[in-house]
Every structure is written in C-alpha cells, then in structure tokens.
Amino acid sequence: MKHCLPFPSLSSSRPLDGSTAPAPPQRLLWCYCFHHCPEDSTNHTCRTDGYCFTMVEEEEGGTTLRTAGCLGLMGSEFQCRDTGNARQRRSLECCTDQDYCNHDLHPTLPPQKPPNYVDGNIHSKALLISVTVCSIILAIIIVICYRKYKRQEPRPLYSMGLEQDETFIPPGESLKDLIEQSQSSGSGSGLPLLVQRTIAKQIQMVKQIGKGRYGEVWMGRWRGERVAVKVFFTTEEASWFRETEIYQTVLMRHENILGFIAADIKGTGSWTQLYLITDYHENGSLYDYLKSTTLDSRAMLRLAYSSVSGLCHLHTEIFGTQGKPAIAHRDLKSKNILVKRNGTCCIADLGLAVKFISDTNEVDISPNTRVGTKRYMPPEVLDESLTRTHFQSYIMADMYSFGLILWEIARRCVSGGIVEEYQLPYHDLVPTDPSYEDMREVVCIKRLRPSFPNRWSSDECLRQMGKLMTECWAHSPASRLTALRVKKTLARMSESQDIKL
C-alpha cells in the first residue's frame, strides 16, 4: 500500500527511553518514507508538520520489518515513549533537525531478556511435584479452551487477524472508557493510532449486515461489545482514506455524527483489506427505518432535529488552537443517516466530504473519483454551475439534499389516521435508477420538486415541515436555509407543541 493511517508521532533522533519529544519544527519537513508513504509521494519522500521517523519491529517468525515516513504533530507524546512490549520487540527513532534526517536513523531492536535459569541441583521430589501441578493446570486450560471453541459462532472465511495484543488496552477497558480517556486528554481527534490498530486486530467478524458501492458492512464484536465494521473494496481506497481523515479531525466527535472507533489496513502482497470500525446501530439507516416504521409528530421532529444537529456540527467551523474546520458532506441521503436506539439520528459515510481551510481560504477536496447520489443532487450540481472553489456552494448543496430527507420523514408521520407508504424523492417523476439527464430535466429544466399530500395542509406540524423543506430545496442556493436556521426552527416547532426533543 502507498499510504495508510497517519501513524502517531514519534520522538527525537535516538532510541526511545522515556525522554520527552523534541520541539516540533517551525516549518514543513521533508522526510524519507518506506512502507508508510502517502498516495501522492514521489521518490520515497513525504512532507509533514511533525516529525520524520524510522522504526524497526520484530514480526512473527523472528524476521524484522523496517519502516520510515512522516508523522503528524498530533499525539506525538504518546508514541514517542512506545518501546514495544513483552510479546513484540520494537524500536522507534525520530528527528526534526533537518530535511530527510530519518534517512540516517538506524534503530536497533532491544536485546531479548535472558531466561531466568535456576540452579540445576533441584531435588527430584520438588521437580516431580512441579511437573504434576503444571500438567494438571495445562489439562484444565485445554478443557476450558476446547469448550469455548465449541461454543463460538462460525466465522466467515476472511476475518480481521485475531492476534491478541493487549499492549495498549488493559483488561476491563471498554470502548466508551477508551474514547472518554482520549477526549479528556485534550486531543479531541480520536484514539491513538496504535490503540486503533490493536482494536482492529481483536475484532471478531460476526455477520454481514449491508453492502454498497464502496464495499461491505459487518457486525463485529470487540470484548463482547458490538461494533460496525465497514470493509472497503481496494478500488475505494480514496474513500477509506478520506473518511478516516475526516473522522479523526479535531473536535469532530458529536452525538449526531456516527461514532468513530478505529481504522486499519490489513494485507499482504496479493490482497488488501481496508477497515473502518464505528459504533453499531441495530435500527440501520433512516431509509430502512422509515420503510418499516410510522411516526407521530414527536418521533418525526426527533428524527429531523437530531439529523440537522449533526449536519450543523459538520458545517460549523470551531475556532481556537485546536479548532475544527467547516466540513460539507456532499452525499447526504437517508441511506447515509443511521437511527439510534433512542430514536435520534447520526450522520455517516463521510467518504466524499470536503473541508474548508480558513487560513488559506481554500477548499480541501478529496481526490476521490466517486460522485454523490444523482437523486439527491441539487440543480447547480446537475447543470454543472456549482462554483467548486467556493466552500459555501457545498454547504448549500447539502441543504438541498436535507430538504429531500425532511420530505421522506414527513410522509411517514401519521395525521388524521392517514400515512403514505415510504417512497424515495422524485419516485413518481424519474426511473428507479435515474440518469443525470433524467434528474436534470426534472430538477433544473422543469424545476419540479416532490409533491405534498393534501392532508399536510390540515396538520399544523406537517404544514410547517412542508414550508421548511421548500425553503431548503429552493432552486437558488442563496435562498436556502442554513442548517443552524433549520435546527432553530425545528426546536421552536417542538416547543410550540410542548414536545421535548
């Protein structure tokens, strides 16, 4: 692979002995890279705001693996002190003093601890007792392991290597504990990268729960906790990389954005698997939920309010030394919103997201070749008039798509004992798999939008919802409501009906 998760930052140009990391460079640093090169690297070089590193680690079978590359500044203190563990020898060195400084780093594996020999003059009786006790204990362990093995569910042919490495995760720690500890540490951008890799190795894949154009989704278990594992096709590497990058953005975590746990790449020379591990929500997507569930006003407002709360957090730039950039989703639809057990929503699938870099006034667009979903594309995307260098254009495109999602939700709200069956937007105007031309003719040329059932006019809540979605999917992007305005309007609607969200 040319690139993987940005490895946590390492330390100075000497073996790791617990000393503190050097001061970060005052400029971008060029580094030599090997086995940890980003996709756009040339001649085995990369550039970073953090450190250059070289690492040597012992693999199974006694072979050694040497890697080098660039390390981001975030989280460096944690990795700078990593010196392997009892089961895996590893030595790390890093440097910041000059470009390509890691080319001359030569870390060596620490010496193996010699076995503790005991005096050979052991009394034969003591030896006999010891052998007997050890044999009994071994027999008990074998019986217990055999019974556990018999009780285990059958696993799929491919799984995520289950090497048990407890290096960074003490027994008894739950995912919630680990994430809360990471949040309280001040990084705000997720778990340390080696902790993520450890979790990824220990996941047990249970069953496939979904499949899409990017890959498959599995329900897995980690220490008894259920998690969702998104397995990307190798052709969707750009989506995996972008989604992982967005999830690990500082201050990204929010109750209405899918909870990120870990990401990892597993593979050999002949195959590669890209994993993204997140919270598991048994209700599935909003699309699946609406097909099988009817709503009252409270449930409708709860779904809508929580969805736009997540979108509002995504769109909002948070200023500060550890701020969060504004992010636009670019593929917002009911299949990319998940429903939690408590009836609220969280936004998922950030593989097409774009970030706004306010310092340089630039839009950070992923090199991903994937496009959004044609049915939810706004008119300016369909007629190719969207200004790609203007970040607000992407924000307003999201709001058009969100207006269609509000329409999907509102149709499933019962009023006067009546409710419509679930349908996708424009179901009566375009084919099941519409082309760009189908959507452009309906949305841009005819300027049609999904129709409202007559019953909405006699229900105040649905009437207001209709007005809200109309202002979201306006033809002119400048006329559309912002996520914050929609959030405030839904909160006011809830208060007027004495509904607690």
UniProtKB/TrEMBL annotation:
Binding positions (ATP): K230
PROSITE patterns on file: GS, PROTEIN_KINASE_ATP, PROTEIN_KINASE_DOM, PROTEIN_KINASE_ST
Pfam families, A to Z: Activin_recp, PK_Tyr_Ser-Thr, TGF_beta_GS
Bilayer topology term: Single-pass type I membrane protein
Molecular function GO terms recorded: ATP binding; metal ion binding; transmembrane receptor protein serine/threonine kinase activity
Cofactor(s) of this protein: Mg(2+); Mn(2+)
Biased composition, class Low complexity, residue ranges: 1-16
Highest taxon of source: Eukaryota
Root EC class: transferase
Domain Protein kinase residues, every copy: 203-493
Name of protein: receptor protein serine/threonine kinase
Organism field: Scleropages formosus
Phylogenetic classification of the source organism: Eukaryota, Metazoa, Chordata, Craniata, Vertebrata
